Write the structure tokens for this entry.
Amino acid sequence: MLARQAGAPAWADQATATVHPGVNTETAGSCTSNFIFYQGSDVYIGQAAHCSGTGESTGTNGCTSGTLPEGTPVTITGAEFPGSMVYNSWARMQARGETDENACAFNDFALVRIDPRDVAKVNPTVPYFGGPSGERQGELANLEQVVSYGNSILRGGITFLSPKFGTQISSDGDGWSHGVYTVTPGIPGDSGSGFMDGQGAAFGTLSTLQFAPVAGSNGVGDLQRELAYARTFDDFAGVTLAAGTEAFRGALNLAGTSDLLRAPSPAVAASQKSVSLREL
């Protein structure tokens, strides 16, 4: 077990924790949680903002798409009591009158406050991989290795399909979004899944399934930008990603996949079409 992160709560042992990255959350549909966060005595689990969306799966613009309000109860697998969605990037951008087109298109992040009675059940370690080691600092390069853990209910509890290995194939929206290709790709119900780089640093949250430029690839929101946006609000100015209590165990060697996963040209990437991955 790694040394405890400065300022972090005392976490449950990984072997017995029932609330951790990758558990399902149920708001307006079933999604996969990404990482654990904390601020003071409050502990949060992350999900995609569109998991509380009230429109169609093609509605991916957070400045115009409908969403349930903050304060909406959220069922968290492994928790005895419902959590509360206390931050939703879509709701915040709409209330603020956000005009940044990239933020509107790709800022897809929400925080669910875990009921204090359930905090003793929480561990921030990502199943299978370990980590995260912290927040990714700096941009991701095309063909850089990435990993993720999806937990769609469509897999019927078959967890060996949950770990995903892949690479970044494009950077879009002035860095707000990463086009990634993984084996296997994210499917409905994987929405919100956390992504880490090859060193275990958390860099993204699963948002969309892409039909172009690479069919079956996924759009992943940039966690560094999503958290920076959340921290512009006084009530989340100090929110912190919880590092895993177990070390990151490494990614597969994906050498040799570069010919299959060459990054598309910026012109092609800009024309990509996508839908959200909430399981209705």
About this structure: The chain is about 10% helix and 30% strand.
